[in-house]
Design goal:
By secondary structure, the protein is mainly alpha-helical. The protein has 6 helices and 3 strands; from the N terminus they run βααββαααα. It has a 3-stranded antiparallel β-sheet. It starts with a strand and ends in a 16-residue tail after the last helix.
């Protein structure tokens, strides 16, 4: 006999809110679970493993579409793993672009802080810069925008 879990137990086991589990079902990341006689959701260990896969993938920043793609690959055990590598490589490139953008943003904010002479909030140069038209706050030239 296989073990089954109610949604609350699955939520506790995986560190996932019940609302998120229902959302993942709705968008097809998790299959609709069996229902008990009282119409309660009944999850298997396979459902828990799949949810852990989704959770870990989300923690690593993969999009819902990328997770769908990775899960589809996992059902083709004999396929060339380069397909998985390509998804992950693309994700790494996206992360690297975000890191460049964040570093440029950090530089701009650090410059704003360094130019702050102190004094009263009424004369705050940082608030003044934030209130300026967007062109004054653009990320410095050379930073990736993607």
């Amino acid at each position: 006999m296989s073990t089954t879990f109610a949604i609350g137990e699955l939520a506790r086991q995986t560190g996932t809110k019940a609302e998120t589990i229902r959302y993942y079902e709705k968008i097809g990341l998790l299959t609709a679970p069996l229902r008990s006689a009282g119409n309660y959701r009944s999850y298997s260990e396979t459902d828990a493993q799949r949810l852990r896969f989704v959770r870990r993938s989300r923690e690593l920043g993969f999009s819902i579409d990328q997770i769908r793609e990775l899960m589809a690959f996992s059902s083709h055990g004999e396929a060339d793993c380069s397909t998985v590598d390509n998804v992950v490589r693309s994700h790494v490139e996206d992360i690297e672009g975000k890191i460049r953008d964040l570093q440029a943003l950090r530089g701009e904010l650090s410059r704003m802080i360094s130019r702050c002479p102190g004094g009263s909030i009424a004369g705050c140069r940082i608030l003044e810069a934030l209130d300026a038209p967007p062109s004054h706050l653009d990320v410095p030239t050379g930073a990736s925008r993607g």
